Automatic annotation (TrEMBL):
Zn(2+) binds at residues 308, 312, 331. Binds 1 zinc ion per subunit. GO terms for molecular function: metallopeptidase activity; zinc ion binding. Residues 264-438 form the Peptidase M1 membrane alanine aminopeptidase domain. This is Metallopeptidase. Keywords: Metal-binding, Zinc. It comes from Streptomyces aurantiogriseus. Residues 14-25 have a biased composition (Basic and acidic residues). Transmembrane segments: none annotated. Its cofactor is Zn(2+). Pfam families: Peptidase_M1. Residues 1-10 have a biased composition (Low complexity).
Length: 442
């Protein structure tokens, strides 16, 4: 943050999926969703089903839904309930909402043993908050990022039930398949994660279908967007959506840089596997926000943060990470890719970094950065500079091989700081111990 299905045989996958150091579960998730929107896309309701597998030796006795859309408003007030509500649960016994109404425990009817599958289903009601945010609105346009509940992850650390972090991301999820049916007024255009198509529905309505394989979340937007579509030289369909008052020069720059970035990073990190990406542009959206196959972009005459957000398709999306525990693994990497794309001069950039104290680490969690908001920029500035310094330390060719190999080894998997440090050390004969210490990477 700065704020699809593929045809058979169309993509040659990298050398297999990487597992986290400790097996994460539940995995091999499939979400089937049907939602219907009101006249202006402010309210959506429908049914969601998720099936999953227990990947661990220990029997799985419960799962947790994360209702991240409640992150800002929490449990709401008597006259203003939480934006995302779940009811009529089947396949398990729901408990009480916890973590400020962003976590719902569902006890399974019987323990799920290793390799076995189960499913839960529930009604979902979504009211888009009246704020300009990743889950919010701007004028006639609605943004539904983190609106759909997703399953939490359990690993050797237990259930990941971290709080919502408004200045960054708290999200940690495993690669999943989504099949989503969005019923909406035909006056609204609906960009969405995955490969999507729209057909006529009831009179005055349309149905947008979207299928996405191996993505970590699903987002959509709705509004009277203007649209354009083009295909990059590498064969990726880039669909652009923008509010009519968005500066035309910024729209042109965003479309140009978005198309070029998707091909550039496909060469550097591995081919973009989803076939389609949607660029959603408005004038006043703050910065940008990444979701698989869809990015939200505040766009001025000078363009937008599209390159940084497209880089997130790899660093968070394809190469996943626990964004609460180690935000540098996606933000620093995406900003490093952004700097390389634009050819910024990063020589000596570390000398310009003001480091707060020896206790602060670039690899700190969102718990630290949320408590020290004025320092959070370091994840972007110092983080990208550290990676540029690593490139100079091991050599440009070695760095390029390292990142492409690392992405392949963690394709649809989960990256950790320990794993990256190990991979980097294996890419050079130099002892990187002093480098990690100098750059506060622990």
């Amino acid at each position: 943050m700065t704020a699809g299905a593929t045809a058979a045989g169309a993509v040659t996958e990298p050398r297999g999926e990487a597992r986290p150091p400790e097996t994460a579960t539940p995995d091999r998730l499939r979400y089937d969703v049907t939602v219907r929107g009101d006249a202006d896309g402010s309210h959506w309701s429908g049914r969601q089903r998720v099936s999953f597998r227990n990947a661990t030796e220990r029997p799985l006795r419960e799962v947790y839904l994360r209702l991240w859309g409640n992150g800002v408003d929490g449990c709401g007030t008597p006259g203003r309930p939480s934006p995302v509500r779940v009811s009529n649960v089947r396949g398990g016994d729901p408990g009480r909402l916890t973590v400020k109404c962003t976590a719902l425990r569902i006890t399974l009817p019987k323990p799920l043993t290793r390799g076995k599958r189960a499913s839960i289903a529930f009604d979902v009601s979504i009211t888009v908050p009246e704020r300009n945010d990743r889950f919010g609105r701007e004028g006639a346009f609605r943004f539904l990022g983190n609106a759909l509940p997703v399953l939490a992850v359990h690993d050797a650390k237990g259930w990941h039930l971290d709080p919502y972090a408004p200045i960054g991301e708290s999200f940690y999820s495993l690669a999943s398949d989504f099949q989503v049916r969005i019923d909406h007024p035909s006056t609204l255009k609906v960009p969405a994660t995955g490969r999507s198509w729209t057909q006529a529905g009831e009179p005055g309505r349309a149905i947008t279908h979207s299928i996405a394989h191996q993505v970590r979340d699903f987002a959509w937007a709705a509004g009277p967007f203007r649209t354009a579509s083009e295909t990059s030289a590498g064969g990726v369909r880039v669909k652009s959506y923008w509010a009519p008052n968005t500066p035309a020069a910024g729209v042109r720059l965003t479309r140009r840089d978005g198309v070029n970035a998707i091909d550039r990073f496909s060469k550097e990190f591995g081919r973009y596997p989803y076939g389609e990406i949607d660029l959603v542009m408005t004038e006043k959206f703050g910065g940008g926000m990444e979701y698989p196959g869809l990015v939200l972009l505040g766009t001025t005459d000078e363009g937008s943060a599209v390159v940084h957000e497209v880089a997130h398709q790899w660093w968070y999306g394809i190469v996943g990470n626990d964004q609460y525990s180690a935000p540098w693994l996606d933000e620093s990497f995406a900003q490093y890719a952004n700097a390389r794309f634009y050819g910024w001069d990063t020589r000596g950039c570390w000398s310009d970094v003001y480091w707060p104290n020896d206790r602060t680490a670039l690899t700190d969690s969102m718990a630290y950065w949320a408590a020290h908001r004025d320092q959070y920029h370091l994840v972007y500035t110092a983080g990208s500079c550290a990676l540029a310094d690593l490139e100079r330390t091991i050599g440009a060719a070695a760095m390029a091989r390292l990142l492409k190999r690392y992405a392949q080894d963690h394709w649809y998997g989960v990256s950790t700081t320990t794993a990256f440090k190990k991979a980097a050390q294996s890419a050079t004969g130099k002892d990187l111990g002093p480098f990690w210490k100098q750059h506060h990477i622990r």
